[in-house]
Amino acid sequence: MEKISFGKFLTKDSIVVLHAEDKKTAFDQLVAKVSDLAHLDRDVVARLVWKRENMMPTGVGHGLGMPHIRVERMDNPVIIIGVCANEIADYETQDGEPVRVIVFIAADDAKQEDYLGLLSSVSGKMRNSELIAEILENITKPAQILKLLQD
Predict the structure, then answer these.
(1) Contacts of range 32-36, beta carbons closer than 8 Å, 24 or more positions apart
(2) What is the CA radius of gyration of the chain?
(3) Contact at 8 Å (CB) between 86 and 20?
(4) What does the alpha-carbon distance between residue 19 and residue 57 come to, in Å, rounded to a whole number?
């Protein structure tokens, strides 16, 4: 199985600055964006992401949140990089630190191996405090963030 790089699924529309003080507001903004880009029903996306989050919070640490959902009949994954203008302190992270970058993944539920490969790719690249800091430094420059993530 070839190694999947999540960077190939990112476009200029994938980078979003989130203006939220809490997890619910951040998720609302992400759900709206994912729904638009993936042509999915907002209520369905919201229900799926909260169902997943309530089972096990997706705050992986190092300032990173990684909510992910699987949806029926998606041609390609949709990945949104939410760069938080403010710290999201109520995110429930493994290290207790606030979240500053949220990578939201919506992918086809039929392609289990691809999905796991995608999660692994995101996790491998993004669990990196220096990269998170660099993304935050470029919060006003989506093209630069895109370049960082596609390298």
Answers:
(1) 33/80, 33/82, 33/104, 34/78, 34/80, 34/104, 34/106
(2) 14
(3) yes
(4) 21
131 in Cβ contact with 125 (< 8 Å)? yes
Residues 6+ apart with CB under 8 A from 6: 77, 79, 103, 105, 118, 121, 122, 125, 149
pLDDT tens-digit map of 39-84: 999 999 999 999 999 999 999 999 999 999 999 888 899 999 999 9
Q: How many helices (H) and strands (E) does the chain have?
A: 5, 6
Burial class of residue 44 in the structure, from the number of CB atoms within 10 Å of its CB (0-12 exposed, 13-18 middle, 19+ buried): middle
Kindly report the three-state secondary structure assignment for every residue of 61-126.
Answer: ECCEECCEEEECCCCCCEEEEEEEEEEECCCCECCCCCEEEEEEEEEECCCHHHHHHHHHHHHHHH
Instruction: Give per-residue pLDDT as tens, 85-100.
Output: 999 999 999 999 999 9
Query: Quick check: 133 and 15 in contact, CB under 8 A?
Result: no
pLDDT of residue 1: 45
How far apart CA 112 and CA 100 sit, in angstroms, is 28
Per-residue pLDDT tens digits for 108-122: 988 888 889 999 999
